[in-house]
Amino acid sequence: MMQTKALEDVTVLDFSHLLQGPFATQLLADMGANVLKVERPGAGDLFRSITFRNKWLGETRESPSFLAWNRNKRSLAIDLKAPEARDILYRIAADVDVVVQNFRPGVMERMGFGYEDFRKINPRIIYCSGSGYGTSGPYLSRPGQDMLIQGLTGLAAATGRGDGPPVPVGSGFADQVGAMNMVYGILTALYWRERSGKGQNVEVNLMSGLLAHQGQEMLMAMNFNEDFQRPNSGIGHPGMDAPFGVYPTRDGYVTVAMSPFRTLVGVLGDDSLLEYDDPERLFTERDAIWNRIAALTMEWNRQDLIEAMLAVDIWCGEVKTHLEAAADPQVRHLGAITHYDHPTAGRVKVVGPAVKLSETPAAIDRPAPLVGEHTAEILAEYGFDDAAIADLRARGVTG
């Protein structure tokens, strides 16, 4: 029978926690992969205990941070330090396609769950590790957290106003880039395995990923031996000239991207600005130009200015909050916002899968799991009988 989901014959043994690894395995799960999320009995993934602004969902206080990255998975609660854990997980690993983990380098190997351990059991296994800085080097013992990586790779230093401090991106950008790279590596390895029959080790680190996603900025800095300097105005990129940037209006902000300066001046109605219409001045005097333009945009309502700029093909857009973005007509048209029903948190609004496939579409079939919700179900699938499952739970090996 034809597969209804592209990855429905792929099983992932998922040891990951927090954001990078769980987002990667959620992306695979959305495409149909059978993701078995290994968690600590009782406590589960550390993200279950972390939230923003001390806000929780439902009477059982479910973490929005956990619910965001763990749909379409089943939870297998098992104490990795218990002697029986190896036997259980080795039995499962004999039949899985992919292992994902983002513990600090060396942790999984010390517990007997490294690539070499699983490869002995299953030579076709694809083992994907995510870390902050790779598996060796002077930063090996450093914590590999998202904002720290943004600072170390130049992203924060290139963001914000020149007369203020560096500004990290307002999202877990390094982790999410890392998740995409994990999926990229896993799918590449799966494709190669179809031809070679062999598994392999896939390593992803946040530092390399964020450097790669700043490819043009890094190339400019290294080849001209000159760092970008952040402007004091709202120019949206340290390497761009005016009018590129964010501008205030009476009731909000608008963005203007690469657009003919003369055309924008025509919309704003102040021909004295044309003295700056020179490529060199548009860069070297961009702060002064921004201030002149901002004084004019402040005389407009946001929507009126957007409509006037779009009418002459200026690249522009509204600056929207998250709630405004969720209500955006194009976002609604795309069906980008959806929901799932969680057994304790109730109806949870979420961002749906971003990739559309015509023959094997992604779908949300399961909410994020409760800790150990599927332990008995998963163990039964791998040959453990009811008595063995009950015994493991009674002794605290599983939850």
Attribute tags:
399 residues; alpha/beta; Rossmann fold; 2 domains; six-stranded parallel sheet; three-stranded antiparallel sheet; 11 strands
What does this molecule look like?
By secondary structure, this protein is an alpha/beta fold. The chain has two domains: 238 residues, 3-Layer(aba) Sandwich (Rossmann fold), CATH 3.40.50.10540; 75 residues, 2-Layer Sandwich (formyl-coa transferase, domain 3). Strand 2, helix 2 and strand 3 form a beta-alpha-beta unit. Helix 1 crosses helix 7 and helix 7 packs across helix 8. The longest helix has 24 residues. It is elongated and about 85 Å long. The model has no long low-confidence stretch (mean pLDDT 95).
Radius of gyration: 25 Å
Number of strands: 11
User: What percent of the residues sit in helical stretches (DSSP H or I)?
Assistant: 25-40%
Give the percentage of residues in beta strands: 5-15%
State the CATH superfamily name of the largest domain: Crotonobetainyl-coa:carnitine coa-transferase, domain 1
CATH architecture identity of the largest domain: 3-Layer(aba) Sandwich
What order do the helices and strands follow? Answer: EHEHEHEHHEHHEHHEEHHHHEHHEEHH
Number of helices: 17
